[in-house]
Design a protein that fits this description.
The complex is a heterotrimer.
Chain A lengths: L6 H10 L4 H19 L2 E4 L1 H17 L10 E5 L26 H8 L3 E6 L19 E2 L2 E5 L5 H8 L5 E6 L5 H7 L2 E4 L19 E6 L2 H11 L29 E5 L8 H16 L3 E5 L7 H16 L17 H12 L2 H14 L5 H24 L2 E5 L15 H5 L6 H6 L3 E8 L5 E7 L5 H14 L6
Parallel strand pairs in A: 2-3, 2-6, 9-10, 9-11
Antiparallel strand pairs in A: 1-3, 4-5, 6-8, 7-8, 7-12, 11-13, 12-13
Chain B lengths: L10 E11 L36 E2 H13 L3 E2 L5 E4 L9 E4 L6 E7 L5 E11 L3 E5 L11 E5 L6 E7 L6 H17 L12 E10 L9 E6 L2 H20 L7 E6 L4 E7 L9 E2 L10 H9 L5 H12 L6 H8 L3 H9 L4 H11 L11 H12 L5 H14 L4 H7 L7 H14 L1 H8 L5 H12 L6 H12 L1
Parallel strand pairs in B: 12-13
Antiparallel strand pairs in B: 1-10, 1-11, 3-6, 4-5, 4-15, 6-7, 7-10, 8-9, 11-12, 13-14
Helix pairs in contact in B: 2-3, 5-6, 6-8, 7-8, 7-9, 9-10, 12-14, 13-14, 14-15
Chain C lengths: L10 H10 L6 H17 L24 E2 L9 H6 L4 E2 L2 E4 L8
Antiparallel strand pairs in C: 2-3
The chains are: A alpha/beta, B alpha+beta, C mainly alpha.
């Protein structure tokens, strides 16, 4: 079975009847049983549901019904996506054990495509973090080196794919929460254009920045998953009124004549090995006939500030609903106000509280203009910078993460240092553009390095085109 | 300005904020039903309950009705946005309300009171309603002293339009007229059933007082006014309360007060210092609303005749004043079209107005008898064939039967008004028989007419029409 | 983390923000949060140097306008399923302690 490690191959084999979905699932469950205790990628392995879904796929195949493009593919879901009747905790005590009465749109779409859900993966609490150390249920360890973090906030989903616990997984990305763990775990991670994948059923962190995207073992799988998930959803007002993305056709195109942007004023401080891998990726594309062009993004260096004012502000409002009234944790008290205070104090971890405080302050009377108001203008500057850059370049490359996976505990006491992990990923969320991380060689200690391919709004085709080429020429092979 | 309303030398300044529940089928941001009075929590969905991951999507019909309200109130309709108003309360499922803040849908209109005074309307914007809480264990269902509360989210997410009036109202009566007129407009355009007693129209009053020519005084907001009558009482009470404070050398504290219908007073609910900072910011889960000019024009063109125009039309037809009781009442009841139909069927329009007003005295009573039937009855009356007393009796029977031939009914009852010739002959006979009374009447003693009229009515066995008799006597006297 | 003399946020402001956000914080937590938030705000002061007067705020990543639903009822949630996972319920409604100290 080990030769079937990617989603496309699995789906093809299951659709042709050469292997059963149940047999595929058993293989993946065996891997989980063997190694999950040292990785802790999952908050919950959904064995029974997975068996039922696999059985249904097999029944469809037997009956000659089309089981879907992802037939039998074991997929893990970040535990901030609503799954009906299955606990969705956001790795927070305030939602511990909570079972949603409805499914997120992406969950429904993947299930209709024949996917088999193996479990809900661990994350930084409410998606706030870059290491999955902010989870209330324990950290997720990096499969390449279990003394180190998997990145975050979608650390569990990245590790699940890297460890072979799932053929693919879903994460959410607000400031880099798919791309950064993808880079640290050596897998592919995609944040699509804002509005292409429905947010209905994704527990909101920062509404104008959040997007759902796939983790996969290779670029082709990511394309297939994105095609199955994307497309207009009438339940999400911010959903772009267009049909599903179509990107598989661009995977085999050569890169001759493409203009690849190099940011001349990119913030420094990355590991030398990471910078070396980036330089090699430019060389590889140039060698294949692409033109490397210099672009400037002078406002990029303010991205962190804008993000850490906008995201916590929106989050402070999105997380106000966790008040013990209708669902989740309640700490009883003599009156409702005291109940709110006690429930939220007990239910939220430190990082979440810190961001709620920061966000509340940034929106408060007298401070809105100085903080949130200004941050929205900085956002405009960054978006304008990108617009100018994309007149000269078709895509832009940066490192995904400035550093390789760091040891567990190394940054927990230094929030600002943790925030710097997202310096290259944040600007795309602010602009609403797509970006993806492709494994490209290794860095210090032999740990994975990811190169980030950025593209303009709805530029997924050219983004995948370049990513596929980088995958083909990556040092030491694609994985 | 001798007829400026004052209490103890102080002017009143009143601004009203009215929240109206729109008559849509579903809620503002989700597809649960918008229904009143059903079992609790039977119209709920992820958006209504503020579940994690839920997202709002705007109801097009709510926008249509909100525009109707704005245009009926002479507002400008503009491209607009939605904001979050953040505060904690158990009936607020998301701990924020989606509303409109600095750029609302409708701005700068007015409402004209029946007497012609215009009350400015600052804005009329869309927002979502909250759930409802009931308090268990305290006295009278109040929060104070309760043991716990129960929340029903059926109402959460119902579309509201908040109509903010400018502080142009100067008397409790004007406030009552404003709300009454507003209600009629809302019902006429089909935007809401606007029932204060059911909560589909809610009124808060901002009240302050000042000496003429002085700057505006500190205002208090009065909540929990549940009827038009209460509104008048509450404003009057509050004005007097503030005047008493000022006269006593104290300052009016800016605060929100709760009107208690039972003890007829307002009580402190919360002071400004306790007020939450709402941290308004643009709602990132929604996109801007920019109704096309063609949509706005279509809504405007489809507006029905509004109460003010109806009153003007009826007044012009009958000569009765447009803010007089008869016209106001008949239009408010929606009976004016019928009055005009009766007139069109050949009856005197002023008599039609009087008869409809009296025969269909209840709010919302729909005249059910064919207009032609009532018209024929009125013709009999005005041509003198029926006295007005007889006419009322005949009409009562026609109404009870849902229609009928007035002549047949009159004949069956033995009603015949006397014809003018016979009546005049009878009058002459009585004048001759009551020579003393006649002499006194001719000399100017009006009281003497009573004896003459009495004798005529007796002689005619009640068939004489009192008005006609009086007119004849007066004309014979000269 | 050293707190600069002109700290960007005071302990009073932190306590007030905690109340607004309904987060119960001890005195020690207020101090710790004040230090952390002040440090962050100091770092975020880099945007103070920018001249943003002529810049329009960016509030939407993708410029959509006029997104609507039709006014048609769709099946909602089952009350029993929802109340079964509620912290407290009675009589088909959500039960909460007395509502005191809140704006309504």
């Amino acid at each position: 079975m080990t030769e079937l490690s990617n989603a496309v191959d699995i789906a093809n084999a299951v659709r042709h009847g050469s292997v059963s979905a149940v047999a595929v699932l058993d293989e993946y469950l065996a891997r989980i049983d063997a190694r999950e205790s040292s990785i802790h990628a999952f908050n919950l392995v959904t064995r029974e549901q997975a068996r039922a879904m696999a059985a249904k796929v097999d029944a469809d195949v037997k009956a000659g019904r089309d089981p879907g493009p992802l037939a039998g593919v074991p997929i893990a879901l970040k535990d901030n996506m609503c799954t009906r009747g299955v606990p969705t905790t956001c790795s927070s005590r305030i939602l511990e054990g909570w079972k949603p009465p409805y499914d997120a749109t992406v969950v429904t779409r993947l299930a209709e495509a024949g996917a088999v859900f193996v479990g809900k993966t661990n994350l930084d609490e409410f998606a706030m973090g870059s290491s999955t150390e902010n989870s209330a249920f324990g950290v997720t360890y990096n499969p390449h080196d279990t003394t180190r973090v998997s990145g975050g906030s979608s650390g569990g989903s990245a590790a699940a794919v890297a460890a072979g616990f799932a053929a693919a997984s879903l994460g959410s990305d607000t400031g880099g929460s798919i791309r950064q763990p993808a880079a640290l775990c050596g897998v592919v991670g995609v944040k699509p254009t804002y509005g292409t994948v429905s947010r209905y059923g994704l527990v909101a962190f920062a509404s104008s920045l959040d997007q759902i995207g796939p983790f996969t073992v290779d670029v082709r799988d990511a394309a297939v998953l994105l095609e199955a998930m994307s497309g207009h959803d009438p339940l999400d007002s911010t959903s772009i009124p267009q049909p599903a993305l179509s990107v598989q056709g661009s995977l085999d195109r050569d890169v001759k004549g493409l203009r690849v942007g190099r940011i001349t004023d990119l913030p420094g401080g990355s590991d030398p090995e990471v910078e070396a891998r980036l330089a090699e990726s430019f060389d590889a594309l140039a060698a294949a006939g692409a033109t490397v062009v210099n672009v400037e993004l002078p406002s990029m260096k303010y991205g962190l500030t804008a993000y850490y004012l906008i995201a916590p502000a929106e989050a402070s409002s999105n997380l106000a609903r966790y008040d013990g009234v209708r669902y989740g944790l309640r700490v009883d008290a003599a009156d409702t106000n005291a109940m709110y205070m006690a429930t939220r104090a007990a239910g939220f971890g430190d990082e979440v509280k810190r961001r709620i405080m920061l966000g509340t302050y940034a929106l408060s009377a007298g401070y809105y203009d100085a903080y949130y108001g200004k941050a929205l203008k900085v956002r405009r500057l960054i978006s304008d910078d990108f617009a100018r850059a994309y007149q000269k370049a078709d895509v832009i490359l940066t490192p995904t993460s400035p550093i390789v996976a760091f040891p567990v505990g190394a940054k927990v006491d230094d929030p600002l240092s943790m925030y710097l992990c997202d310096v290259f990923t944040i600007p795309t969320n602010l602009a609403g553009h797509p970006a993806m991380s492709v494994p490209f060689g290794t860095g210090a200690h032999g740990l994975p390095v990811g190169v980030q391919v950025l593209a303009p709004t709805l530029g997924e085709s050219v983004m995948f085109q370049v990513a596929a080429h980088l995958e083909r020429v990556a040092p030491g092979g694609a994985k | 300005m001798s007829d400026v309303f004052m209490i103890d030398g102080y002017e009143l300044v009143v601004g009203l904020e009215v929240h109206v529940e729109l008559a849509t089928v579903t809620k503002l941001f989700s597809a649960s039903a918008n229904r009143f009075g059903d079992d609790p929590n039977t119209h709920i969905d992820p958006v209504t309950l503020g579940l994690p991951g839920a997202l709002p999507v705007l109801n097009r019909q709510a926008v249509e009705l909100a525009m109707r309200i704005g245009l009926a109130l002479n507002c400008s309709v503009q491209a607009c946005t939605f904001h979050r108003k953040n505060y904690f309360y158990p009936d607020m499922p998301k701990a924020y309300q989606i509303s409109q803040y600095d750029v609302p849908l409708n701005i700068d209109g007015w409402l004209e009171l029946p007497g012609g005074k215009r009350i400015g309307i600052e804005r009329a914007h869309l927002e979502e309603d909250t759930g409802k809480s009931t308090h268990v264990g305290g006295t009278g269902g109040r929060i104070h002293g309760s043991d716990y509360s129960l929340i029903d989210f059926n109402r959460a997410g119902v579309p509201l339009v908040e109509i903010v009036g400018r502080p142009d109202i100067a008397t409790p009566d004007e406030a009552k007229q404003y709300v009454t007129e507003l209600r009629q407009i809302l019902v006429a355009i089909g935007a809401s059933d606007a029932k204060m007693e059911e909560g589909s129209m809610r009124c808060d009053a901002n009240v302050s007082v000042r000496r003429p020519g002085a700057p505006l005084g500190t205002r208090c907001e009065i909540k929990n006014v549940n009827s038009v009558r209460s509104l008048g009482r509450a404003i009057e009470y509050e004005a007097r309360r503030q005047i008493a404070l000022i006269e006593g050398g104290e300052k009016v504290r800016q605060e929100t007060r709760h009107w208690d219908e039972n003890d007829g007073r307002t009580h402190t609910l919360r002071t400004k210092e306790d007020a939450d900072d709402y941290r308004y910011f643009l709602e990132p889960d929604l996109v801007p609303l920019a109704p096309e000019a063609s949509w706005i024009d279509a809504v405007r063109a489809a507006l029905p005749m509004l109460p003010r125009e109806r009153r003007a039309r009826l007044s012009s037809a009958t000569g009765a004043p447009s803010d007089g009781e008869a016209v106001m009442v008949v239009v408010e009841r929606g009976q004016d079209d019928y009055v005009l139909a009766v007139a069109a069927a050949g009856a005197d329009v002023s008599r039609a107005l009087v008869h409809v007003k009296e025969a269909y005295a209840e709010q919302g009573a729909t005249p059910a008898i064919p207009a032609a039937d009532l018209a024929r009855m009125i013709v009999l009356e005005t041509s003198g064939k029926l006295t007005s007393t007889q006419a009322k009796t005949v009409l009562a029977e026609i109404v009870a039967s849902g229609g009928g031939d007035a002549e047949k009914i009159a004949a069956a009852k033995g009603f015949e008004a006397m014809d003018t010739g016979a009546l005049e002959a009878m009058v002459d006979d009585v004048i001759a028989a009551q020579a003393d009374a006649w002499a006194k009447y001719c000399a100017g003693e009006e009281k003497a007419m009573g004896a003459l009229v009495g004798a005529i009515m007796k002689a005619s066995k009640g068939k004489a029409d009192g008005k006609a008799v009086t007119a004849l006597l007066q004309s014979k006297r000269g | 983390m050293p707190v600069t003399p002109q700290a960007r946020i005071s302990p009073d402001a932190v306590a007030k923000v905690a109340r607004l956000a309904r987060l119960d914080v001890t005195a020690a937590e207020v101090d710790r949060l004040t230090n952390q938030l002040a440090g962050m705000l100091e770092h975020f002061a880099d945007i103070d140097a920018l001249d943003l007067a002529a810049v329009e705020p960016m509030t939407q990543p993708y410029p959509l306008v006029n997104v609507f639903r039709d006014d048609v009822v769709k099946p909602g949630l089952d009350r029993d399923e929802v109340l079964a996972v509620a912290p407290a319920a009675e009589d088909g409604r959500f039960r909460v302690p007395p509502i005191i100290g809140l704006e309504g």
